Amino acid sequence: MKHVSPAPETRLILAGLGGQGVVFATRLVAQAAVALGWPVIAAETHGMSQRGGSVLSHVKLGPYLSSLIRRGTADVLLAFDPNEAVRALPFLRPGGVCVVNAEDGLGYDLDAQLEQQAIAVHSFPATSIALALGSTSLVNTVVVGFATALGCLPIPQGALRAYLEDLPPGRRERNLQALEAGARAAEDTLRISARETG
Amino acid sequence: MSIQVLLGNEAIALGLVESGVRVATAYPGTPSSEVLAAVGRFGERMGREIYTEWSTNEKVAFEVALAASWSGLRAAVAMKQVGLNVASDPLFSAAYTGVRGGFVVIPADDPGPHSSQTEQDSRLLALSAKVPVFDPSTPDEARRMVGAALELSERFSTPVLLRPTTRLCHALQALALDEQATQQAPVAPVGFRKDPSHWAATPRIRYQLHLELVEKLRQIEGLLEESPFNRRQGEAAHARLGVIAAGVAYASAVEALGELGVAVPILKIGTPFPLPRRLVAEFLAGVDRAVVLEEPDACIELQIPDRSRVFGRLDGTVPSAGELSPEIVFDILHRALEATGHTLAPLPDPVFERHIAGLPLPPRPPRLCPGCGHRSAFFALKREFGPQAIYPSDIGCYTLGTNLRAVDTFLDMGAGVTIADGLYKASRLTGDRRPILATIGDSTFLHAGLSPLINAVHTGSRFVLVILDNHTTAMTGGQPTAATPSQPSQRQVSIPELVRACGVTFVETASSYEHQAFRQVLRRAHDHTQAADGGVAVVIADWPCVLHDPAPLLEHPVPVSITQDCDGCRYCVEAFECPALVLRPDGSRVDVDPAVCVDCGQCIDACYKGFIVPRLAEIAPSL
Fold first, then answer.
1. Could you tell me the residue range of the domain that residue A79 belongs to?
2. What is the mean predicted confidence (pLDDT) over B538-549?
3. Residue B34, domain member (yes or no)
4. Which of A24, B25, B482, B512 is such that its CA lies 20 to 30 A from the CA of B353?
5. Domain range holding B564?
6. Which of A27, A70, A136 sits opposite B330 (nearest CB)?
7. Is the preceding peptide bond at B348 cis, omega within 30 degrees of 0?
């Protein structure tokens, strides 16, 4: 599997809806990075905004002081919903990467703007993959597995697996399968793009 | 030793346990709610005997912890910023009486506001109460400040505030944890010692205590001039611009200056009160101008006597409301640097951001959860009494009843009852005959609803009070209430018995899930308010929070479908407002979103045309 060596400093935005497990995915990435010995600071959404609204997390790997990512400076955006992806796009820096759970792209014509900002969007049907595993609640882990296997997120799969191994039985197996399924989807994407370019 | 990712609130809790706190109390409120439970968890893991409790309100929590301090134990109390308003009475008095064991008060401020009624600054309350306050910038610093705050508290016999803000409370940071560390409790727990000159001081002695307090603050300020939490960074040479920053705004300022590639001196203030005024004066002498960045109001800035070269909130350089986001901090510093002759790279054109701002993205306001019993109660209220009735309400998840237009007012904890009481009294003078139907949650009722109810009964008010009893403090994550004990040593307090003891003669409990029966109870309650010998009527709407206790829902699932007859009239979408009922983009009909629906079946009553049906009926239609 293609693996990008860890970038020392990464600014990551996770975007989704209340109930989609943004907080769980935040903890997954943060704990895995800590296990690798990297400094981590992150920001979560709690309280009233958790009730079904847009939920946004910021994760910063590296020696940062502030938990928040300024708009226009994030390296990576992981989105569990296409509308929430579009809402969070202004966080990305020029040249940043967006991974989004969507059946059919972002749903808006943003090609000109994305090209101007040199932002790459990788969209894939994480909901279908999660449903095939038994629950839409696994979308978060599927997306994280996809992003790491694609090389967008500089965290080795092993570190993510180690965190999921500590979950209670049941949740553990389902999340490990979801991570694996996300990674497989990424490998398929890489194969297809390799065929197209080769 | 292990490295763990901790929430800012957990880092504060860790600091409390590491510093030998023995009694910790709190009333839940975003963004402070995670502190107390984490004190319990760390205490258990580190083998400390610590008493923790969710108190009935913040004043109670403050006083329970203060008495522990008077007993020689280190103690802490946590709350959200508006909770400190409730506890401000003991705060102001305890500044005079002083403490024995270190006593730290943790009010979490909410610039934004994200989940609060106000953006008030607890540091200004500390200044007003003459109590020292620490202002941390990161979870790691908050953890270290806890120990310093407790030592200062003990040394000068004063309560000390540690004031985090939302972005610190809900930041996650990797921190080193030494679970084996053993620390002696700094004060021998000898128990309460009588000392009427402090604990029972009369006004004459209070004057003396006030003089002592002022002298204490003078000494504390001298000490804080040398504190590592107050420090100048950057070169000593004279600079055109300097930055004075505190709290989360300090972290944003450091990163923004790094991104701008400009080195300017920064004065980091960790104790806004007492402000190390000599340090500030020396810093100002070394710069042409200074920008002050602090949240949510001007506390440091107000204490600088000569502000002719100081820019902040008071002159409009810093916005006077809202959170100091990284974008705003960056923008303020960019402008200040340009104004002081620094040459900067031009700001990128935000054309992309503007383009996205113009897209028709679906708005995502907070909503009651699918299956929430509050929604059913509100829907029944609206069906029974219509849009003309007046619906005062209170603070909690059910504030979201505004979406169903079943909440006309909310002010502060307990005001749902008092505003109803006052509206009734005003209606006697204005001739307004509209029914008044107030709602309040179980935890909020126990927090601040009892005195208002006693007042309303005693003075002959007439309105319906619906206590929305979901058996928990739901909005803040499901903390227990006095009616739902969480420990074997605790006793259950009965809400209906309390209501009866207040003198209410109409008290009925009904499940908000039984739509028709619930409406009949509401009608009878209203009749009671109109009867010759009537008065306040209380209905307890009983249904557990679906997040906290989904069992009843799981035991009796009622899957629904919407028939082909649905004409997209929008009634259910607007009047019932369940996230699982989704109007098609072309407006032709409503569908049930299976990923969101929890099979509560409550929306069956929300289609008066009968197009929302139990799925069973669809499979085997009656002939």
1. 10-197
2. 95
3. yes
4. A24
5. 557-619
6. A70
7. no
Task: Establish if B441 belongs to a structural domain.
Answer: yes
Asked whether residue B414 falls in the same domain as residue B548, the answer is: yes
Give the confidence band of B366 by pLDDT, cuts at 50, 70, 90.
confident
- Pick from B167, B172, B326: CB nearest A70: B326
Residue A194: both structure tokens together: 């390799």
Q: Touching check for B351 and chain A: CB below 8 Å?
A: yes
Instruction: Dump pLDDT digits (tens) for B181-206.
Output: 655 555 566 799 999 999 999 999 99
pLDDT at A196 over 90: no
pLDDT in tens, B346-361: 888 888 888 898 899 9
When computed from its CA atoms, the radius of gyration of chain B, rounded to whole angstroms, is 28
Q: Are B536 and B567 contained in the same domain?
A: no
Same-domain pairing of B43 and B162: yes
Tell me whether residues B361 and A87 touch, CB distance under 8 A: yes
Q: Are residues B431 and B530 in the same domain?
A: yes
Residue A88: which CATH number? 3.40.920.10
Domain count, chain A: 1
The closest of B514, B511, B470 to B604, measured between CA atoms, is: B514
Say if pTM beats, i.e. exceeds, 0.90.
yes
- Name chain A contacts of B174, Cβ cutoff 8 Å: 30, 33-34, 38-41
CB distance B543 to B513 below 8 Å: yes
Chain B environment of A70 (Cβ under 8 Å) = 255-256, 259, 325-327, 330
Is residue B68 within 8 Å of residue B62, measured between CB atoms? no
Which of B115, B359, B364 minimises the CB distance to A54?
B364
Q: Does B353 fall in a domain?
A: no
CATH of the domain at B235: 3.40.50.920
Residues of B with CB below 8 A from A38's CB? Answer: 174
**B350 located within any domain:** no
B614 and B488 share one domain? no
- Residue-wise pLDDT for B63-111, tens only, equals 999 999 999 999 999 999 999 999 999 999 999 999 999 999 999 999 9
B290 touches B241 (CB < 8 A): yes
- Are both B528 and B415 inside the same structural domain? yes
What are the backbone angles phi and psi of residue A192, rounded to the nearest 5°?
A: -60, -45
Indicate yes or no: CB of B137 within 8 angstroms of CB of A65: yes
Distance CA B30, CA B47 (A): 28
Contact: A52, B327; criterion CB under 8 Å: no
In a domain, A191, yes or no: yes
Are B180 and B122 contained in the same domain?
A: yes
Note whether B376 contacts A: Cβ–Cβ < 8 A: no
Please name the residues between 150 and 189 in chain B that touch chain A, using a CB distance below 8 Å: 167-174
ipTM, interface predicted TM-score of the complex: 0.92
Distance of CA A50 to the CA centre of its chain: 19
